[in-house]
Amino acid sequence: MADDPSPPDPASPGHPLLSLTLAAMLDDLHALSGAVYLLSPGEPVLEMKVMAGLPRAFASPWERVGLGSPVPVADALRERRLVWVNGEVEMAHRYPRIATVLPYPFCLAAVPLATEDTAYGALFVTWPGSHSPQLSDRERHHLTTACERLVTRLERAAAERHPVGPEPDILPPPTEADTAGRSGALEAVRMAARLPYGLCALDLHGRITFANRAAGELLGVPSSGLPGTLLWAAVPWLNDPGYEDHYRAALLSRQVTTFVALRPPGSWLSFRLYPGGDGLSLRISPSRAVSRAGGGERGTGTAEPSRQVGGRRLVTIAHVLNLAGALTEAVGVEDVVQLVADEIAPALGSQGLMMLGSHGGRLHILGHRGFPDDAVERWDGTPLAAPIPSARVLSTGVPAFFESPEQLERLYPLPTPTSDGMAAWACLPLIASGRPVGTWVVAYARPHAFPADERAVLTSLSGLIAQALERALLYDAKHRLAHGLQQALLPPSLPALPGLETAARYLPATQGMEIGGDFYDVVPTYDRAVAAIGDVQGHNVTAAGLMGQIRTAVRAYTTVGQGPGEVMRSTNRLLIDLGADLFASCVYLSIDSGRGRMVLARAGHPPPLLRRPDGRVRVLDLAGGPLLGIQESAVYPTAEVAFPRGSVLVLYTDGLIESPGVDIDDALDGLAERLAGDPAEPLDALADRLVGPGAAGERPDDVALLLLRAV
Question: Strand, coil or helix: what is 121?
């Protein structure tokens, strides 16, 4: 029987459908790597089914991604379009999370695998950074047609109920020169052994497959023990994530990558990585540039090698990820500036840092470190149209790097010479949510080169800082709004009353909107004084708005001559009529200074404290009514209490005394102990003492305090 000449059906069971398609696509497009994702059954998750060209470790953070995640394959499938990212700068702007882990020059295309009615998944393909910034028509055609063919096969497999993937990843096979026993292999080993510098061969995973004798001598490790190990694991002083970064950068960018490392105690070695499709070649030699720099020989207008090495060595993936976690905890703009100054500047080895925002068409300094004050004042308020790097970067979104003052002056000539004490600058845009939110400037006191890997890291950091700065600007605006609203709703000052001294404090909650429903007020009438304090449920805008209505109502009912019990009943009915679904507590009292008496009404509020002239403290736990806003027919009984000269009445909200795990009676006893003291103590000092450490600590609830002294 004659053999069937037709090729096997790619959609048949057991056939590597995805691997064959992906391998053919990479070959046609001359691409570096790629991966195919399929939707996980029953959940909006894309799962990587096969990867080709590079080890899966490069994409391990994205083996499973949610359909709503900000990654190219998810965007491509969700929006049913081809997503093109033309390099590390655009990657940092659009997908800062990916740029954080892979801050290397490469291009990426993501394409959906879907019909009009059914979504199957997506795939991505990458090219080295040397690829054109634009996807050619030929490449776009190959991508789309290959994906259409793959979708057709996925449809057929689904119709025939054939499971698809996962499949083994595809890595290039070793070349003949790497295979033992081939012709000339022994002579090649002998030749490498005679060379005065170290030679190593690394596979795509970074494992050493060959090392000559000089490599072992330079590294301080027997060459016989190197094959099969990872370079940064076999050599203790190379055990730093930064060195692995260079291996990853070389493979992903397909560019020759160099770095310098210090072999203890004082020998500098130069490492040069030559990437290929099946691995890397590594040359190791003594670093002459660093040796000359250590001896005091430096060229004019070039970066100091030791500084360059230090900065590049320290800015590793570990640093970037650590910074990302720290930036999530930054609250305001000052926090972001402080964090960048403390975390990034030391790692970069920079001496100056400046962060700028824009408002009203002008640049405004958000914070700075290392720059002289006169230079900062000179740039603050500069129009965005001014011909200076920070303004141009903010308006165009394109980073700018100046390795020396001569380079800066050549590109941005100024009518009069200016100096900020620096000799090299990196100006980078801060772009979040697709819009510029500011610029950050990293400066060096000496000329400094910005190689491609360092520019990639700075660009990646810019994406993280931009997101943190955007959140911080929104937080500061919200904080100013909340503070202004709270101040507008509370009395700006307490009136001077005959026979009374007053003092008040308000502390917002440190959680949520930092605005609350606590209020206090003092109202003078023709024959007596009225004081009130209350607490509306919650600490948000709704609570603050209702608090303003209640405070206004209390004042209005007082003005028409209602007594304490009537004011409570009227306010209770108003709160029920408003239908706000929020409750409020309140203490209302009317003080007759001439008689030394006061009448109180209480609606579910913590009891006031009264310190008598002899120093004894009494808790005025008098009969009262329910919270305002619960029962329409509620009655609020009143009680008359003596208030002689020298007495101090303390009105407060529950935020002053309530703490998790503390009994309310114990909390009241503690407040009474703090109240006892010198009768002549100024009322403002007493208020500060009663508030105590809560003024600077965390507060789950806001605090209002009103003190009244009979004089």
Answer: strand
Question: 578 phi and psi, to 5 degrees?
Answer: -70, -25
**595 shares its domain with 693:** yes
Question: What pLDDT band is residue 34 in, cutting at 50, 70 and 90?
Answer: very high
449 shares its domain with 521: no
Domain boundaries, position 623: 491-710
Most confident of 192-196, 252-256, 624-628, 656-660: 624-628
Structure tokens at 119: 């979504």
Distances in whole angstroms, Cα of residue 84 to Cα of each of 52, 66, 111, 618: 19, 20, 9, 74
CATH assignment of the domain containing 272:
3.30.450.20
**Of 292, 315, 384, nearest to 103 (Cα)?**
315
Residue 291, pLDDT score: 43
Q: Give the length of the chain.
A: 711
Residue 237 covered by a domain: yes
- DSSP label at residue 3: P
Provide the phi-psi class of 492: left if phi over 0, else alpha when psi is between -120 and 50, else beta. Answer: alpha
- Secondary structure class of 641 (helix, strand, coil): strand
Domain count, the chain: 4
In SS3 terms, 90-113 reads as HHHHHCHHHHHHCCCCEEEEEEEE
Integer CA distances (angstroms), 252 to 58, 59, 96, 192, in order: 9, 11, 17, 27
Indicate the pTM of the whole model. 0.48
CATH of the domain at 692: 3.60.40.10
In the beta sheet, which residues pair with residue 367?
Answer: 355
H helices then E strands: how many in the chain?
21, 26
Per-residue pLDDT tens for 431-445? 887 778 888 898 998
Residues 600 and 518 in one domain: yes
User: Which of 143, 159, 175 represents a domain boundary (last residue)?
Assistant: 159
Quick: pLDDT tens for 354-394: 888 887 788 888 888 888 877 777 778 888 888 888 888 88
Query: 621 to each of 536, 604, 610, 645, how far by Cα in Å?
Result: 20, 11, 11, 21
203 is a domain residue: yes
